[in-house]
Design a protein that fits this description.
- The complex is a heterodimer.
- In chain A, the strands form 2 sheets. In chain A, strands 1, 3, 4, 8, 9 and 10 form a 6-stranded mixed β-sheet that branches.
- Chain A is 0% helix and 49% strand.
- In chain A, strand 8 and strand 9 form a beta hairpin.
- Chain A is mainly β.
- The termini of chain B are far apart.
- Chain B is mainly beta.
- Chain B contains no helices and 11 strands.
- In chain B, the strands form 2 sheets. In chain B, strands 2, 4, 5, 6, 9, 10 and 11 form a 7-stranded mixed β-sheet that branches. Chain B has a 4-stranded antiparallel β-sheet with strand order 1-3-8-7, with no helix packed on it.
- In chain B, 0% of the residues lie in helices and 52% in strands.
- Classes of the chains: A mainly beta, B mainly beta.
- Chains A and B meet through strand 3, strand 4 and strand 9 of A and strand 5, strand 9 and strand 10 of B.
Chain lengths: 112, 117
């Protein structure tokens, strides 16, 4: 079913440090995963995705790691910048080939 | 590429008013669009899947007569909140997917903040 967050965990990092945001997904049938970034008052912005036949994928300053054994997904942001401050959501496709189930989100705060 | 535009960005209206929100895919065609609702500090909750040329598929607990969805073209889906009441106040976000494969990301509009007085 849908994942509804009752609160937002917060990760506070120093500008220039690396950030790691974690996500435990719920459905072992999920074979596609996405990370989104949502700034205040805006819609989610696609960051990076990964399919279940991979365990790592890299983008520009971001890396997604997938551990299917423990149903864990992480997003690593290198050299975190103030503009990275936002709420980050992981999403999985679950049993559906077209719907997404969103995690509860993590707020990233970057200290100058 | 893959730009989704949502309009209006903000609506404030009286209780009992019906409100229409538009979602457009600007640079691609989308046979499927999605409508979400988001409360403050919470995640996105899927309300319905909008299918071009056919009826929308609603998630459990979402009233189809309350939230009317029309997907008349490959680039436009609309959500109408009928006879809106204060409890309908929320952030409504649409998304669209490029292509039909299950391993394609959804691209989101910037949301509509609905406030019912």
């Amino acid at each position: 079913g849908e994942s509804v967050g009752l609160h937002l965990p917060t990760l506070s990092v120093q500008e220039g440090d690396n950030s790691i945001i974690n996500c435990a997904y719920s459905n072992s049938a999920s074979d596609y995963f996405i990370w989104y970034k949502q700034e205040s008052g805006k819609g989610p912005q696609f960051i990076i995705d990964i399919r279940s036949n991979m365990d790592k994928r890299q983008g520009q300053r971001v890396t997604v790691l997938l551990n299917k054994t423990v149903k864990h997904l992480s997003l690593q942001i290198a050299a975190t910048q103030p503009g990275d401050s936002a709420v980050y959501f992981c999403a999985e496709n679950g049993d559906s080939s077209y719907k997404l189930i969103f995690g509860s989100g993590t707020r990233l705060l970057v200290r100058p | 590429g893959a730009v989704v535009s949502q309009h209006p960005s903000r609506v404030i209206c009286k209780s009992g008013t019906s409100v229409k929100i538009e979602c457009r895919s600007l640079d691609f065609q989308a046979t499927t669009m999605f409508w979400y609702r988001q409360f403050p500090k919470q995640s996105l909750m899927l309300m319905a899947t909008s299918n071009e040329g056919s009826k929308a598929t609603y998630e459990q607990g979402v009233e189809k007569d309350k939230f009317l969805i029309n997907h008349a073209s490959l680039t436009l889906s609309t959500l109408t909140v009928t006879s809106a009441h204060p409890e309908d106040s929320s952030f409504y976000i649409c998304s669209a997917r490029v292509g039909q494969g299950g391993d394609q990301p959804q691209h989101f509009g910037d949301g509509t903040r609905l406030s019912i007085l």
